[in-house]
Amino acid sequence: MNYTKAENLPSIEQTMRSLKLGGLAKEWRTVAYHDKEQYMRDLLDIEVREREANRMARMIKQANFRVIKTLDDFVWKPTIEIPSTIIREDIEQAAFVENKENLVLMGVSGTGKTHLATAIAMNLCEQGRRVRFFTAAGLANILQEKHQRGTLTSFMNSLRRVELVILDEIGFITLHKEASELFFQVISDCYEQKSLIITSNLEFSQWNTVFGNDKLTAAMIDRLIHHSHILVFSGPSHRLEESVQRQRKGGARK
C-alpha cells in the first residue's frame, strides 16, 4: 500500500506528547474556539493544570506518607491544647514552615497527631513543595542502612532539599546507640534550616528511654523546642472510640 506524505506525518496528539504537552494531547479537542486569544489561553490553561496536578502527585509520592489524610476530615477537639504562640489557621496552612519553626504534637496514641501532621504536609504537597514522612523507627533503619553502605551523606543531602520533615511515633521503639546518634544528626541538620513536625506519645522527660543517652537526648530536645509550637493531645483514642461505636452498631443490627 502506498502512503501519501501527509499519512506519514505524526498525529497532532503524537506531536504534543513528543513536546511533553500531555494535558493538551488529552483535552485539546474539547476546547471551543471563539477567537485566537481565547483559544490559545484555554489551551495553555489545560497544560498548566495538568502540570500542576502532575507536580502535586510527584510531591505526594516522594513524601512517602503511610496513609493519605486531609484536614477535611480532621476534628479539632477541645482536648487538643494549642499554645498561645500560634493560631489554628497558621497550623493548618503550615505558616510555621516559612519561619523554619517546628510543630511538636504530644499525647496518647490514637488522638489524631499523625492525621494532623499528614494533613498539614499534604497542604504543602498541593502547593508543589517538598516534604518527607518517616516513622522514628523507619528513619532509624534507613539511617543505619545508609551508614553501613556509605551512602549516608547522599541521603542527608536529599533531606536538605525538603522544606518539612515529619518524624512520627517517637516513643514506640527504643533505639540503640548508633541509631540514636544518627537520629540526632538529622535533628541537628534540620535545626534552623527547615521545619520538623514531631509526634510522640511520650513527654520530653521520658525521651531518654528511647534514645538511651541523657546528654544526647537533652541536646536533641534543646534543638527541637527552641523554635517550636507544642500541641498537647489528650482524651481517649479516636480509634478506640470508633471501634466501640462500630461494635455497638453491629450489635444493634442483630
Key traits:
254 residues; alpha/beta; 6-stranded mixed sheet; 6 strands; elongated
Q: Topology, please?
A:
Elements: H1 12-18, H2 22-27, H3 36-63, E1 80-81, H4 88-92, E2 102-107, H5 113-126, E3 131-135, H6 136-149, H7 152-160, E4 164-170, H8 177-190, E5 195-200, H9 208-211, H10 214-226, E6 228-233, H11 238-253
Parallel strand pairs: 2-5, 2-6, 3-4, 4-5
Antiparallel strand pairs: 1-6
Count of strand segments = 6
Note the main sheet: 6 strands, mixed
Distance between the amino and carboxyl termini: 72 Å
Overall spatial form: elongated
The CATH class label of the largest domain is Alpha Beta
Radius of gyration: 24 Å
What is the overall pLDDT average?
A: 90
CATH topology of the largest domain: Rossmann fold
What is the CATH architecture annotation of the largest domain? 3-Layer(aba) Sandwich
Q: What percentage of amino acids are in beta strands? A: 5-15%
Helix content: 40-55%
Within the largest sheet, what's the order of strands?
A: 1-6-2-5-4-3
Point out poorly predicted stretches. Answer: none
Give a written overview of the molecule.
This protein has 254 residues and is of the alpha/beta class. It folds into two domains: 12-61; 64-242, 3-Layer(aba) Sandwich (Rossmann fold), CATH 3.40.50. Helix content is 51%, strand content 13%. The chain is built from eleven helices and six strands. Strands 1-6-2-5-4-3 form a six-stranded mixed β-sheet. The longest helix is centred in the N-terminal third of the chain and has 28 residues, at 36-63. The model has no long low-confidence stretch (mean pLDDT 90).
